[in-house]
């Protein structure tokens, strides 16, 4: 296991940038895009792509681990059934037994409170800004809405239409970090801009 995932209590070790995969937006083969993002400095990746058959998804996860392991990176898998580190949708049941690290997607105060009560290690709170990647979750929160809701949950990542220029305000609003899908999938070199802003 990566040292990033060595303790469920040590949330300070959670990376500030979490890259979320979406092969439909990727600039090339997903493993190549993730490798380029890792070369640019990314150290945590959430394998989303839930529509893949289980065997294809397992093979892709193994491929991404070979990219992340040499740099001490963290691979998180979306959905119940993963091991090590998993990320749950808002309505998914909490896994038993508990994986080493567990995060949950949240879009409301009630969902953040649930994530905290369950002992989640992190939450995504979205959408911060309007984005085609996160349709159907109500109006965008904006930085003020994020700041209002964020204290209700565990360490929280801002997700949804977040660019590097948005990062300072979101950190001031209490974000642990940012989760990014579309911009990194389309141009993995932008990881450097996010990391510079997060620093």
Kindly describe this structure.
α3 links the parallel β5 and β6. This protein has an eight-stranded parallel beta barrel with strand order 1-2-3-4-5-6-7-8, surrounded by four helices. Residues 1-10 have low confidence and may be disordered. It has helices at 30-39, 54-68, 109-118, 142-149, 167-172, 182-186, 191-198; strands at 17-20, 44-47, 74-78, 85-88, 101-106, 122-125, 156-159, 177-180. Helix content is 31%, strand content 18%. By secondary structure, it is an alpha/beta fold.
Write the layout of secondary structure elements.
Blueprint: E1 17-20, H1 30-39, E2 44-47, H2 54-68, E3 74-78, E4 85-88, E5 101-106, H3 109-118, E6 122-125, H4 142-149, E7 156-159, H5 167-172, E8 177-180, H6 182-186, H7 191-198
Parallel strand pairs: 1-2, 1-8, 2-3, 3-4, 4-5, 5-6, 6-7, 7-8
Helix pairs in contact: 1-2
GO cellular component, one term: cytoplasm
Function: Condenses 4-methyl-5-(beta-hydroxyethyl)thiazole monophosphate (THZ-P) and 2-methyl-4-amino-5-hydroxymethyl pyrimidine pyrophosphate (HMP-PP) to form thiamine monophosphate (TMP).
Domain Thiamine phosphate synthase/TenI: 17-182
């Amino acid at each position: 296991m990566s040292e990033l995932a060595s303790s469920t209590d040590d949330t300070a070790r959670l990376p500030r940038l979490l890259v979320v995969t979406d092969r439909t937006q990727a600039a090339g083969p997903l493993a190549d895009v993730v490798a380029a993002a890792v070369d640019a400095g990314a150290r945590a990746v959430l394998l989303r792509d839930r529509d893949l058959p289980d065997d294809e998804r397992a093979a892709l996860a193994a491929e991404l681990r070979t990219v992340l392991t040499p740099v001490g990176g963290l691979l998180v898998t979306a959905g119940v059934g993963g091991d090590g580190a998993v990320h749950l949708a808002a309505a998914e049941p909490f896994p038993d037994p508990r994986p080493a690290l567990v995060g949950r997607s949240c879009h409301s105060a009630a969902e953040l409170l649930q994530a905290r009560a369950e002992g989640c290690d992190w939450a995504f709170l979205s959408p911060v800004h309007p984005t085609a990647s996160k349709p159907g979750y109500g109006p965008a929160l904006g930085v003020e809405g994020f700041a209002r809701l964020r204290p209700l949950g565990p360490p929280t990542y801002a997700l949804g239409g977040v660019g590097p220029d948005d990062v300072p305000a979101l950190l001031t609003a209490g974000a642990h970090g940012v989760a990014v899908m579309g911009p990194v999938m389309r141009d993995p070199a932008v990881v450097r801009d996010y990391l510079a802003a997060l620093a």
